Amino acid sequence: MTDTDNPHNFDWTSSQLRRAIEAAGVALWSWNVDADTIVMDDRGYELWQVSSKQALTFEDLSERIHPADRDRVRAAFSATRAVVGPYEIDFRIVLGTDVRWISARGQGSDTGIVDRSMTGIFLDVTGRKQAEEGHELLAGEMSHRVKNLLAIASGLTQITSRSSTSVEEMTKQLTQRLAALGRAHDLVRPLPDGQGNAALLGDLFTVLLAPYDDSGAFAGRIRVAVPRMGVGEGAATGLALVIHELATNSLKYGCLSCESGTLDVSGALAGKHVEITWMERGGPDTVPPAGHQGYGSKLLERTMTGQLGGSIAYDWSEGGLVVTLVVDIKRLAG
Predict the structure, then answer these.
(1) What is the pLDDT of residues 92-147, one digit of tens each?
(2) What are the Cα distances from residue 134, in Å, to 70, 127, 140, 142?
């Protein structure tokens, strides 16, 4: 039985095919391999932001490919004439300040080539790539947080054992600290819509740092004195991440890792910003990290500059680490 004998066969027309292609956001292209000329449909010219009135070569389009992907794409397209079967390659193009992800798909080798022209499609896959990057970032953050929580639990056990005189007392204190850590961890998550300000700035610091303060002989070694101001839902998550990361590092390497260490958190208004000083004293000698930034440092930098519209600076002084956080007041309240 032939296709025409099949009553369920759909009789595609050129207009129907065109509507289906447009609905899928697909751009068609044809490349004459001898003359090195490329022609596309209207969607293709729009996608690459080039004029349909000028002759195009592969090199013309290559100039719009992201420099980091250009050589890889050139090599891949050159190889398509020798590779039998379908091919697909994803790459970035730069359009002014905008970066888009393109997926080029076609049929490889000269088999079946018509008029020395190869054909294929371009597909804008920017949304998918951004989603993939978001998932990778989330997975990295989750892995980093889990490792930090394990390190925190170990550190809290050690500082609790120093101020406990019995197993029962240690159990009680450690349970209280882990419960406080749970409450602090809740502040790292966004609040449901409609709940207004997440917390006062001072309360945010106090709650997040409470698990790290000894309740025995060394109680009160963490002091917080910042301006009375509200922290909005949007900023609470980012600022909580920053505090949590700094406290974790201090517990591992800084003043909170030893009995004699103290931590002072102070703040002051400075025009359109609030400056918060994180000052560690009495801990081990501070040494600037060598080599590239770790994941935690990159997370702090990205949160402070991107989400909170400010900056973070480190002073590895002889007396102890001093961190200066500058936060945009409007971002903080938002």
Answers:
(1) 989 888 888 988 887 765 555 656 677 788 888 888 887 777 777 767 767 766 77
(2) 24, 10, 10, 12
Work out the angle at residue 59's Cα, subtended by the Cα atoms of residues 55 and 64, and round it to the nearest 5 degrees: 95
Q: How far is CA 319 from CA 78, 152, 281, 326, in A?
A: 61, 24, 6, 22
Distance, in Å, from the CA atom of 288 to the CA atom of 291, rounded to the nearest integer, reads 10
Residues in the chain: 334
Predicted TM-score (pTM) of the model is 0.48
Q: CA distances (Å), 200 to each of 225, 300, 332, 333, in order?
A: 12, 21, 10, 10
Strand pairing class (199-200; 230-231) = antiparallel
**pLDDT tens-digit series, residues 159-213:** 566 656 778 877 776 776 666 566 655 654 554 554 445 678 888 898 888 877 7
Tell how far CA 263 is from the center of its chain: 29
Domains of the chain are 3-124 (3.30.450.20), 129-333 (3.30.565.10)
Tokens describing residue 268: 């002051």
Q: Yes or no: say if 176 and 214 are a contact pair by the CB < 8 Å rule.
A: no
